[in-house]
Amino acid sequence: MVAFVNLISGKWAIPILYRLIVEGRPVRFGELQRAAAPITQKELTRHLRLFEEQGLVTRTVHPEMPPRVEYTITDLGRTLQPTLDSLAAWMRTHGATLSHTK
Amino acid sequence: MVAFVNLISGKWAIPILYRLIVEGRPVRFGELQRAAAPITQKELTRHLRLFEEQGLVTRTVHPEMPPRVEYTITDLGRTLQPTLDSLAAWMRTHGATLSHTK
DNA sequence: CCCATTAGTATCAAAAAGGTGCCTACTATA
DNA sequence: TATAGTAGGCACCTTTTTGATACTAATGGG
């Protein structure tokens, strides 16, 4: 199970993946960045590259200017939906209960 | 949802919590350490303190020698079960698919 | 010429996580 | 007497992760 943590590791992994799943369509880089704000470009890029490597996401480059790159959830990535739904539901129900002490 | 990642952050959080949930009874420190091997004392302690702070786990010290400290999942902690079950199921089904490139 | 746009890369710095070794208190056992 | 076992604390160090900033390419608009 340690591997799962590895997979969704990184502060931003879950929000990014969830967004891609919810949208179900190709999503542009900038859109993802706004969805997972305040993530930096660098971190978003890094996460997306990891997901691509794991086969969770597909990357499509449109050779235009300004550049347009779209990310789409794969079938494998989509299998995460029930789990992420469960996460989201838990957060809605119990999220407020948690202390946010740093 | 970033908060969730925060909650279960750390390589070991999920295995520890899951063990506590599955057992459902007070579990000793050493037992948890073996369950989440090869975690170090320091990290296990840190995680358990965090869980305690979040109200997911109760810590009970028995003033004996050698010391005995037991950790028990709380009601709040138990609400994580369906989500963690889902995680575990996903790993069983798709875990092997993932690349483990570092 | 200046500026904005997009999806990055490069570089540097800071913060978080993790590892190691040493110490304790008391008991039991060899 | 020496040693092991328990659940840590504390100090020090290395590695990993995250973040902040500046920079770029190719085009369109003013």
TrEMBL record, chains A, B:
PROSITE patterns: HTH_HXLR (PS51118)
Pfam families recorded: HxlR
Keywords carried by this UniProt record: DNA-binding, Transcription, Transcription regulation
Domain HTH hxlR-type residue range list: 1-99
Highest taxon of source: Bacteria
Name of this protein: Helix-turn-helix transcriptional regulator
Annotated source species: Novosphingobium beihaiensis
